[in-house]
Amino acid sequence: MRERRWRPEGPLDVARTMAPHRRGGGDPAWRSAPDGAVWRTCRTPEGPGTIRVTVQAREAVVVAQAWGPGAGWMLETLPELLGSADLVADFEALVGRLGPGVHELVRELASRFGGLRVGRTGRVFEALVPAVLEQKVVGREAWRAWRWLLGRYGEPAPGPAPEAMRVFPEPEVWRRIPSWDWHRAGAEAVRARTIINASLHAGKLEAAGSAEADRLLRALPGIGVWTSAETRQRAHGDPDAVSVGDYHLPSLVGWSLTGGKTDDAGMLELLAPYRGHRHRITRLLELGGRRPPARGPRMAVRDYRSF
User: Fold this and answer.
1) Tally of domains within the chain
2) H helices present in the chain, as ranges
3) pLDDT tens, residue by residue, 65-109
4) Residue 166 belongs to a domain with what CATH number?
């Protein structure tokens, strides 16, 4: 076991900052313990690793323990995971420059969730696979597929991790998954092919910055604006990567900021004053925005295992 103590500059909400990396309840790569500790596994450049993150509130210090060949890498990159590179001061200055015309709800949420940061994992393919699994299906179905595939092909988490935690498989492993196991997981052939093809380019994707990664990702079959944004939000900590094409997000943004629903074009227009931090705004609205009344039909669950 290796350990690191890190004191962040300014307020930091560790739980909310790390939350986007969790893929539903029972995520094999994530656990939230009763004592408040967050456990996470990662396929690092140095091998598999497990990290446990806690906060000593009185001293305002983050304490992390890590195990496995990737322990050193996970501890070294801990500050980035928790948003040390996030230019939150630029966002605060932007809101200040916008003056009274800025949406009052944005001001309120920015103050209420002042410890929220946009962190980055630095692992593109690890963020891409679950994003592809979430394409055009409800979260419950995607998360079930994620659990099944990691349970089947992920290796046990190093160290004293909670039971059934697994480490994200290497790209070569994703290429070897047979068609019948994709089917058992509930991922149809289109999403399976997208992941397998992306695994061939994993090395190039890992080496790219956010803008270049966007170009490379969207050049791959089956990956569009939404999947690229969801990936870069987590892997690169891109505070401006908007999830255009999301089933719920335009309605959330429109209802929160204007009291009415809107579409992708209307959402981008509402977010335009916050360019550079548009994803951050959507995160704030997800935490404390106003959702439209649930009057229409919900998106249907499609269990591809029965097809």
Assistant:
1) 3
2) 14-18, 71-76, 78-81, 88-98, 104-112, 124-133, 139-153, 171-176, 179-185, 189-199, 202-207, 210-218, 225-235, 249-258, 264-271, 278-288
3) 999 999 999 999 999 999 999 999 999 999 888 877 678 899 999
4) 1.10.340.30
Looking only at the bridges linking them, the beta strands covering 47-56 and 61-67 are antiparallel
Q: How many beta carbons lie within 10 A of that of residue 92, not counting itself?
A: 14
CA atoms of 304 and 213, how far apart (whole Å): 30
Q: Are 154 and 253 in contact (CB under 8 A)?
A: no
**Contact of 237 with 86, CB cutoff 8 Å:** yes
Burial class (CB in 10 A: 0-12, 13-18, 19+), 160: exposed
Domain holding 147, by residue range, is 124-235
| CB 117 within 8 Å of CB 158 | no
**What are the pLDDT digits (tens) for 27-73?**
999 999 999 999 999 999 999 999 999 999 888 999 999 999 999 99
Residue 184 carries which DSSP code?
H
Structure tokens at 292: 């439209």
Q: Which H helix or E strand runs over 43?
A: strand 38-44
The reply to whether 299 falls in a domain is no
Place of tokens 């001293």: 59
